[in-house]
Amino acid sequence: MSRARRSLVLPLVASLLVAPLPAHADELPFRDPDLPRATRIADLLARLTVDEEVSLLHQYQPAIPRLGIGAFKTGTEALHGVAWLGGATVFPQALGLANTWNPDLVERVGAVTGREARGFHAKDPAHNGLNLWAPVVNPLRDPRWGRNEEGYSEDPYLTGRISTAFGHGVQGDHPDYLQAAPTLKHYLAYNVEDDRVTVDSIVPPRILKDYDEAAFRPAISADAATGVMASYNLVNGRPTHVGPELDEVVRSWTDEDLMIVGDAGGASNVAGAQRYHPNRVEGNAAAIRAGLDSFTEDDRNSAPTTASVKAAIGRGLITAADVEDAARHVLSIRFRLGEFDPPGRNPHASTTPDVIDAPEHRLLARQVAAEQVVLLRNDRNTLPLSTADTKKVAVVGQLADTLYEDWYSGTMPYRVTPLQGLAERAAVTSSEGVDRIRLRDLTTGRYVTASTSDSGAPLTATEVTPGDASGFDVFDWGEGTVTLRAVANGRTVSLGDGRSLVNNATQPNGWFVQQQFELVALPDGSFVLEYAGNDVTQSWFGRGRYAVVGADGRLTVTAETPAAAAKFGREVVRSGVDSAVQAAKGADAAVVAVGSMPFINGREDDDRKTTVLPAGQRAVIDAVREANPRTVVVLESGYPYAGDWDTADLPAVLWTTHAGQETGHAIADVLFGDHNPSARLTQTWYRSDADLPDKLRYDISKSGHTYQYFTGEPLYPFGHGLSYTSFGYSRLRVDRTAVDASGEVRVRVDVTNRGDRAGAEVVRLYSRQLASRARQPLKRLRAFDRVELRPGETKTVQLTVRAADLAFWDVTREKPVVESAPHELAVGPLTRVLSVRGETIPPRDLRRVTQAQNFDDYSGVTLVDTTKERGTAVASTAPGQWVSFEDVDLGRSSRSLTARVANPDAPTTVEVRLGGPGGRLAGTLAVPTTADGHSWTAVTAPLRGATGRQDVYLVFTGKARIDNLTVEGSP
């Protein structure tokens, strides 16, 4: 049922149920768990004032004491365990969960996450909410996205399988009560952090439907999520927070109520940075009309939101029924969580804080951390290591003896680093492979020194004779960015109060990550220290980016130019490369742990400029490999790496995401063969950043993003991952060679473990449509299963594909279509052809009103909003841009073409050409100037020689907008 229909029906139900307030609140109908939920919600809504209903639309919902209703908060972060609330089980990053290709395991992770959320809720019900903002299901279209580690895959089908599993786990398995309420993030077409509030994602209809929406739909359709969060960006000219798709598309996927929430500050951006509506009242009203139910604004201060919503009611921009409808969606989730039920009815309500970091959760964290490790390379069976001949292991690299938390990580209750995990298996030597330096102020000759206090203190250049407290370890995170760890207390240097430099951070952290620096070499051989925290891009950032030494010796960041900065000598106390080599020599094996720092190498509000491994880390790999032929590289990151690091003669390479508290045990379990790797990549690893198109190009079919459309040679392809055994595929068969659009095909294949070690194989079924009216992907994942096999064992794996799942969005008729065509089905190296009996897309009939956005091809144009409420139009930004409508039946004679146009610029024309953008000119539309981009007028051009079946091109000679077009003529 649509939101509008609910608004009409349920208030009527409420009017029939209203009764005088009984003496005891627990006797009110809304507290009767045996009544239908809709009846209970209607009863409660009927008892609320308009102001009370409005109060439910903010993230922090106040208590309503007169009805015995407590406070409620939306939004607990829980991407890979409960975050921001204190010590909790920290699982591998979301990308790592997907690497397992194991939905059953991911569901268990979701279940623990929901259980621990209940534990935190028991501590503080008003502020530790049970509405969880997870999982992230945006397809991982571009590995430069700063939030790549938060998502699952570049493939929407795999994303749907994993998100559905996680969501079901979070919700629990009770038929009536939710353990916790997962919310999918971030709707829609959101993969860019730079200028994310104002960036406009331009997505043609087919990609929007078949790719971006396709990642969100499975979990909602499977009732594995209770809502979505709107994203920060605009889509085709309209902010997502006011996009009608929230109500009209997302809610159409399920019969359950959904609570649709705004991202932090997202709704106020509509009238703020996005300047889409003139003020907050109109912006919030538009968001409610579009389907937004909960505003995440102004932290705990709900007053600006509630005042604007009430003002919108007063101005007639929304009605009280609109507010009631949004409140209904919010209350639906609260009822499903069991909030209004008597004690003992909701089995989740008895959960106590004791579940947090439970022993069984620790065991699961270790299992998942191991299962998400991908074996990228294993030449000459270097791995697994044998305890018999591996008595001494060198563990080196920047991530050898540390574990990093990310922005959405929980607080690890304990940490097992790679060094610690391997030290349980063998004698170890170690080095972080980083330079230890001293900085000497060249003006005074004095050395920069740090405090030995645990809490740190401002750095000073006061020491004549350097000691240990003058040492700083330099960690290279690429692109010139380094962090400096003080030897004095093991803390990282930060920008502190008064712009002093202070050694006080346990790891780089915070929204602006104020532990980032560059040591800038000057022509005379000296260095200046530049502060590189990401707040330097903010307009309010204080004056100065370079360090100076004050009269009292204190280092502050107050110089605006390198010329005004203090000059330092950089003295190397210990070479990181030399130290790593020394540790590696004589070891039976060397493990080099390198990778990213989650707060520095891209994260929320900060995209990566490159996916190349930092040069300093690459130097350690090369040197250690030269010193020890049995070198294993362990990459630890939340995104794929490109570059030439893999061209080195490396015997073995593992990749792990930042995998939480059990990372060290997991790496040791894999390296020594206690766990046979079975993880597979969920993204393409490109050879070079040059293989990546402009990150703003969301049309993956035109840009060549992802395995579906990338035609180059990847470093590692989607689905890659090795094992310590080998698997053979044989006897691929299908239960039918032809299927109609409503049927399904069962595919069977025999998979054999050809090695001498038990292992698990991820059996994947891809399809490729071999003939089509529209451009098709190179291949698409359709099904997969993970099968465990003993040595020599063969199992038959059955995978099922519904013909309906082979549908794609037909722009000619604005609906999904299963086309009659042959499809190649591939499992491993084996293929079969399946004939699908669907329909043949007829020639285009432009005699019907055709939305211009439903073109077949285009060059240069963009997509814009038709009105501020709904609709998408085509806009040119320069002469020569065009859109095409292919295989149009113009009949015996087409006399004219009428287009609905808008044009805030100078008068211009649009040429109607046949056969190509430079084809025969059939007519010219004269486009006048209109009041603005939303002022539409109809213009008509006579057509000459427009007959038969033709490809029709609209070629812009200047800036203009077209909403729709119609051809008039004889059939």
TrEMBL record:
Please report the stretch or stretches of sequence annotated as the CBM6 domain.
848-968
First and last residue of the signal peptide:
1-25
GO BP annotations listed: arabinan catabolic process; xylan catabolic process
Which keywords fit this entry according to its UniProt record?
Answer: Hydrolase, Signal
Q: Report which superkingdom the organism of origin falls in.
A: Bacteria
Check the record and name the InterPro entries matching this protein. Actin-crosslinking, BXL, CBM6, Cellulose-bd_IV, Fn3-like, Galactose-bd-like_sf, GH, Glyco_hydro_3_C
Q: Which Gene3D superfamilies match?
A: 2.60.120.380, Galactose-binding domain-like, Glycoside hydrolase family 3 C-terminal domain, Glycoside hydrolase, family 3, N-terminal domain, Immunoglobulins
Pfam families linked to this entry: CBM_6, Fn3-like, Glyco_hydro_3, Glyco_hydro_3_C
Could you state a single Gene Ontology molecular function term?
A: xylan 1,4-beta-xylosidase activity
| Recorded family membership | Belongs to the glycosyl hydrolase 3 family.
Please state what the protein is called: Beta-glucosidase
